Amino acid sequence: RCLEAGLGSCIGHNFLSNLQYLPCFFSEIGVLYWHLDPKKSESEEELAKIRKDRGYNYMDYLDICPGKLANFEEKLKNFFTEHMHADEEIRYCLEGGGYFDVRDKDDKWVRIWIKEGDMIVLPAGIYHRFTLDAANHVKLMRLFLGEPVWTAHNRPQEDHPVRQEYVKRLTDDNAGLALAAH
Ligand code: KMT
């Protein structure tokens, strides 16, 4: 399986850190991934193109670190509670790092290590959670299509139409997910 290319092991999760080598795994679960360089102007152009192509008109920044984010502990606890959203979750890492844990097709956790320059889109309806890495700090750009809605729907959400749609694409129409990725 393609997934094995970058696998190590970390606290009982499948653990991905060489993200560019895993397009196959990402397309399987409908995740999009780019590597940009926040310090380079070519990356600004590439980011502008991604935003234009995918309609990401909204943008803000989120600095997650103990002194900078109000109610840090509580927010981290919520981020690390397994949940889904009714929309895509689009994050571009500008500084620091963190872990997105996502459920694979067999409902097992896969840990994705996001570092500076990594940009990731989690599809609407995927179960996931987030936590910081050892640096205990991340600066993220958040993008959104339209008016942002950050509502987290904690698992279980099997009756949620967006979850049902995601599961349907994952199981009987995996080609659709693969086509959406690149
Ligand atoms: C969310 O709901 O925003 C998350 O899953 C946390 C990742 S971005 C801090």
From TrEMBL:
EC number: 1.13.11.54, 1.13.11.53
Pathway linked to the protein: Amino-acid biosynthesis; L-methionine biosynthesis via salvage pathway; L-methionine from S-methyl-5-thio-alpha-D-ribose 1-phosphate: step 5/6
Pfam families: ARD
UniProt GO molecular function: acireductone dioxygenase (Ni2+-requiring) activity; acireductone dioxygenase [iron(II)-requiring] activity; iron ion binding; nickel cation binding
CDD domains cross-referenced by the UniProt entry: cupin_ARD
Reactions accelerated catalytically: 1,2-dihydroxy-5-(methylsulfanyl)pent-1-en-3-one + O2 = 3-(methylsulfanyl)propanoate + CO + formate + 2 H(+); 1,2-dihydroxy-5-(methylsulfanyl)pent-1-en-3-one + O2 = 4-methylsulfanyl-2-oxobutanoate + formate + 2 H(+)
Binding site for Ni(2+): 83, 85, 89, 128
UniProt KW keywords: Amino-acid biosynthesis, Cytoplasm, Dioxygenase, Iron, Metal-binding, Methionine biosynthesis, Nickel, Nucleus, Oxidoreductase
Cofactor: Fe(2+); Ni(2+)
Entry's localization field: Cell membrane; Cytoplasm; Nucleus
Membrane topology: Peripheral membrane protein
Binding-site positions, Fe(2+): 83, 85, 89, 128
Cofactor binding note from Swiss-Prot or TrEMBL: Binds either 1 Fe or Ni cation per monomer. Iron-binding promotes an acireductone dioxygenase reaction producing 2-keto-4-methylthiobutyrate, while nickel-binding promotes an acireductone dioxygenase reaction producing 3-(methylsulfanyl)propanoate.
A GO term from the CC aspect: cytoplasm
Predominant localisation class: membrane
Enzyme class: oxidoreductase
GO biological processes: L-methionine salvage from methylthioadenosine
Entry function: Catalyzes 2 different reactions between oxygen and the acireductone 1,2-dihydroxy-3-keto-5-methylthiopentene (DHK-MTPene) depending upon the metal bound in the active site. Fe-containing acireductone dioxygenase (Fe-ARD) produces formate and 2-keto-4-methylthiobutyrate (KMTB), the alpha-ketoacid precursor of methionine in the methionine recycle pathway. Ni-containing acireductone dioxygenase (Ni-ARD) produces methylthiopropionate, carbon monoxide and formate, and does not lie on the methionine recycle pathway.
Family according to the record: Belongs to the acireductone dioxygenase (ARD) family.
Name by which UniProt lists this protein: Acireductone dioxygenase
